[in-house]
Amino acid sequence: MTNLKRLLISHIHMPDLEQQEEGHVVQITSQFLRLHHVRDLHLESPFYLEGCLDQMLRCLKTPLDNLGITHCLLTNSDLTHLSQSPNISQLKGLDLSGVTMTYSSPELLPALLEKVSATLQELYLEQSGIRDSHLESILHILSRCFQLMSFSLRGNLLSMAILEKLLRHTSGLPRLSQELYPVPQESFSSDGILQPRRLSQCQTELLEILEDLGHPRTICISFMPLSTLWR
Description:
Layout: E1 6-10, H1 22-29, E2 40-44, H2 53-59, E3 66-70, H3 76-84, E4 93-95, H4 108-116, E5 122-124, H5 132-142, E6 150-152, H6 160-169, E7 178-182, H7 196-213, E8 220-222
């Protein structure tokens, strides 16, 4: 399959936890050495890459157009190697949905987005444990992603204040047409139950912010269960 351009690997299961040794990781990632033309790579639930992402990155032979690593744990070292990899410098699409950022070092996500800001067209950070402080740290980088067309933060716990900052920082992106954001934190009770009246008030405030920005714009406020985030 040396001419393969798009590869999806999903839910590879090993029968015994003890088999998740470095040798098995090498056995999987070394196959990328044979794939000389892969430009779109999507890895769903690649638990075997935790702490070993650099091994896979070293095996890539060509720069990627699209990369998805979803629903798994990545260490600080993994994120560092990812941001430093020459094979992501031309990324058009990046999907890290389900990769928890809650406990990662605060400088890692900004460094990664800085690397791809010039070419990035699609960015998905859904259900990634992103809070206000994480989003605050990347606002200035997002404002320079002038090729960005689609951006999703659904399933994260964010306040009205940070959503307003986000809308203002991204208002100058000429190609941004698909925006998917979570229901604001203020729409929930203290035990995480959605309150329709509070949600309606937040929607009104968001509309006022969009009107104040002065140009037509459509955003989608989407509810995802927050039971795993409300801790």
